[in-house]
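task queued by scheduler; priority normal; single chain, no ligands, no partner chains; default sampling; output format set to structure tokens
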Amino acid sequence: PFGNGETEFADMRAAYDDLPAAIKAAIADLVVQHDVFWSRGQIGFTEFPQGEREQYPPSPQRLVRTHPGSRRKTLYLSAHASHVVGWPVADGRLLLADLTAHATQRRYVYSHTWRKGDLVIWDNRSTMHRGRPHDEASARDLRRATTLDVGSTLKEAA
């Protein structure tokens, strides 16, 4: 009932494009704290080996970025987006929830149903993705390779 192991990809460029001008202006310069331990805590994972939190500290990221290749503006959201820096936590989380709900409407999402031999490539700078649950009794072999970007976009103008 919850899925067959599909991976869903949300187009954060199209989601940004469709935001009202007033919202684009309001979020243009916002910075969001991304924290893998905050997101894991939301789904019940709260115990981590000693020293692990220090290996993966929170990371401030621009909410609105300009993609270096296409020069299109894009939202940068993920489950790790904890709060808006400089805002009351509750207000920032409400904004992030609203933007995530907007960006994950069906019209922005492609759902990939995996078949043997598939290769899927996506750009994390303009895509938000998630894996759907699958039957863990069935064998599954997925391999992922990640490349690093040229640098942090935090200091760049959106």
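post-processing summary
- The chain is about 25% helix and 20% strand.
- The two ends are 40 Å apart (CA to CA).
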